[in-house]
Design a protein that fits this description.
This protein is α/β, with parallel strands linked by helices. The chain has two domains: 3-119, 3-Layer(aba) Sandwich (Rossmann fold); 127-228, Orthogonal Bundle (Arc Repressor Mutant, subunit A). It has eight helices and twelve strands. Strands 2-1-3-4-5 form a five-stranded parallel β-sheet, sandwiched between helices. It has a four-stranded antiparallel β-sheet with strand order 6-7-8-9, covered by helices on one side. It has a three-stranded antiparallel β-sheet with strand order 10-12-11. A hairpin with a 4-residue loop joins strand 7 (133-136) and strand 8 (141-144). The longest helix has 14 residues, at 106-119. 26% of the residues are buried. It binds calcium ion.
């Protein structure tokens, strides 16, 4: 599931773009100024950034420059209201992969995003593992002790998220936001139910349990011994 960050101060554009991508199955974060956008872009991992040029705090050019210093391969599409050749040239030489002039149709943005993602370099992390649990992201396969795990798409995403953050205590809120892209409702048991299902496949038939519960807090994926199990 591709992750996209939209850095755009115009609320209306940000929300229609976010909604559009969410419906297409992307996980979407939004930042409404250049400073927040740059912070998110350099501390989280995104498959692609949609970056507005005219932004409060720090403009899109300077955000792009700074991102390039940290992440030379980060795919970026610029949004600009300035339909001038000089700006197009500036955008592409500053290292944007593509640009789109406002106003634009969402379908046009989506087509460009797909196009850029196809050209993007393969993510450097291809295999995630912990103990004898392995996820091959290129082949979209998960195995434990060499045995293939038959995971539903959501279970796959959940396990990928847990593995990327192995050893970290993950709250239900964080899991719900990152895996389901939803605001977590404290009464919802969607995360617990999904974890239970995942456990059945990942842990139940193995002596060494990897998914651990921290009562009242959340979950952690790790090799046993580092923390006492509370289940
Ligand atoms: Ca703007």
């Amino acid at each position: 599931m591709p992750r996209i960050l939209i850095i755009e101060d115009e609320q209306k554009i940000a929300s229609f773009v976010k909604q559009g991508f969410s419906q297409e199955g992307f996980v979407v974060d939004v930042a409404s100024d250049g400073i927040d956008g740059l912070h998110l872009a350099t501390t989280s991992e995104y498959d692609l950034l949609v970056l507005d040029v005219m932004l409060p705090g720090r403009d899109g050019w300077s955000v792009l420059e700074e991102i390039r210093r940290h992440r030379p391969d980060q795919p970026v599409i610029l949004l600009t209201a300035l339909d001038a050749v000089s700006h197009r040239v500036k955008g592409l030489t500053a290292g944007a992969d593509d640009y789109l002039v406002k106003p634009f149709a969402f379908s046009e943005l989506l087509a460009r995003v797909r196009n850029v993602l196809r050209r993007a370099p393969v993510h450097p992390v291809e295999v995630l593992c912990l103990d004898d649990l392995e996820m091959d992201l290129l082949r979209h396969k998960a195995t434990r002790a060499g045995k293939s795990l038959d995971l539903a798409p959501q279970e796959y995403r959940l396990l990928e998220y847990l593995l990327r953050h192995a050893g970290e205590v993950l709250t239900r809120t964080r899991i719900a936001e990152q895996v389901w892209d939803m605001n977590f409702d404290g009464d919802s048991n969607v995360v617990d139910v999904a974890i239970r299902r995942l456990r059945r496949k990942v842990d139940d038939t193995f002596a060494q349990k990897l998914i651990h519960t921290l009562r009242g807090v959340g979950y952690v994926l790790e090799q046993r011994g580092a923390r006492d199990e509370e289940k």
